[in-house]
Amino acid sequence: MNEVFTLAVSAILLAGFYSAMAYGLGLIYGVLRIVNLAHGGIIMASAYLTWQLFDHFAIDPFLAIPIALVVFFGVGVAIYLGLVRFLPRGPAGAVQSLLLLFGVWLVIRNIAYLLFTGNEQVIHTEYATSSVRILGASFSVARIAVFGVALVALFALHLLLTRTYLGRAIRAVAQNPDSCTLAGINVERVYVLTFGLGTALAGLAGVLASALFAFTPSFGASELLKSFVIIVLGGLGSIVGIATGAAVLAFAEVFSVYVVPPYLTSAVGFVLLVVVLVLRPGGLFGQRVLR
Amino acid sequence: MPIELKLLDDTTDQAKAVNLAQRLITQDKVNFFLGTYSTALVEAQSTVAEQNQIPYVTGGGAATSIYAKGYKWIFGTLAPVANLADTEMKWIAEQQAAGAVPKPARIALVWENTSHGKDFRKGVQDFTAAHPGDYTVVTDESFALDGKDFSAILSKVRAAKADLFMVDAHLPDFITMQRQYLSSNMCTKILTYGARGTESDAKAALGQTGVDYILSAVWWNKQLGNSGLNKEFVEKFTAKFGSAPEWYQALGYEAARSLFTAIAKAGSVDRAKVREQLSSLDMDSILPGGKLSYPPAKGGQADYPFVVQQNLPDGSSPIIYPAEVSTGKGVAPNPACKG
User: Fold this and answer.
1) pLDDT of A201 over the 90 cut
2) Would you call B146 and A143 a contact, using CB atoms and an 8 Å cutoff?
3) N or C: which end of chain B has fewer CB within 10 A?
């Protein structure tokens, strides 16, 4: 029983990181209908930014979150204004956006190789190996902190989307951009802000990743794949669904070691993805619009 | 004979490693390859070398699968990872004989699902099979590279009440797993992550207490450099680069030195003649055992024992095995474990 409890809490903590990892990808897809393949590159770049802030200015990763959010919001706005806005909207632009953003990822990755080489980097904080005891079991302080940040991000995003004019505009554009234009909403501005916000959220994921894992310039590939699995599981375009999808993936991975060899646990998510796409193409929760 | 060295960065990308090897042949017309680092990349480049019949000497690929393909043009200075596990087990057997480790000892064997990890597992399995009654493997699990959560595996290890936690992992997984091991307050009598633990990156990532008493085995260590070729290498390297060499630099050095020795013995840059010289090479070396050869029976992979080190709380990592090169005494069981 204690072992099940320990694993369940571990899965919940992992789900926190997974959800933070997928918010940005889900938000951009939900509004712009673009799969941002540069998402993994942004996560990696943010991990390096956090490492630099820690290394040169002794800024704790969790205190670096506001800086990363601002920097990567700006990066997202720049990528949108400089590249993405020139793509055709709708299905015609789908393949082009994939190629374009994959190219952006490659550029980011190679810049990181030039600047930082391929050596693993890691951030060691005082609490990196600290633990707290919950009902007789010990859990990592860093992972609990990451979970807390992911939870705050979920509530903040939910409030933004449901309680603010910008949020309502984002949801409206996600449902029908043409009608929004007729209603006087500046759709292009919503697109810019959404892309910036989605990129900032990828930056947040990078900060959290840097607090837990070692990273190199090739970091971010498996994070992108898992993010994609999560947003499909949760229903493309649903923020709460993303958090739930992350929980489903995390629980499946953690508990699957009792069914399949541990080296196959990474594949469990993809099997789940195929099953869900066959049985419930709209995701486990079936949402089709951002909410 | 003048040597021109062309250095290219493959950025740890397999496709790029192959493309660069092709470019070196077709554009730069190189005579020989000094190989890259990591099993996957060496495997890919060695195929290019084999197809073009160019001697390929590498200090960066240890998996036996690289050398088991029947290739004739590859030569590796890294001894098999199975030897790593075997050398560690020999030290553990000494501790067991001294009563510091239970008999039979319960082993939790956890390995990355790569040829590197499989070789490590084979080394432990072969040793335990050769010592019936002394060891029981209570957990035998593999994991995929770049894991994000090892709580389930660690939970199994804890439930199995293992005395020896023997893991083979590359640096990122070592850091993630060791952080979770520490934060879940686990403590086993002996803990090893294969070759990991003594490098400066490990201490930077985990802090000194996070790496205390970790056992590791490496192909070479600067503490071997008290005399002869080793002393000369360590002094020259330190004078040139301002820091003491690590094992991967020593292995690269030996790869280059053995190639140059073979060229000198061949008296030309004829590829076939140099390959013949590499095949029959038996030269004095900085590596443990003091000799380097590329036995054809091992597919051109060097075969020698490792040196076992242990991190101590004072920040040192003395060589604790084999006795003839040891610079300190190992500690078992792990004093950090309560009870």
Assistant:
1) yes
2) no
3) C
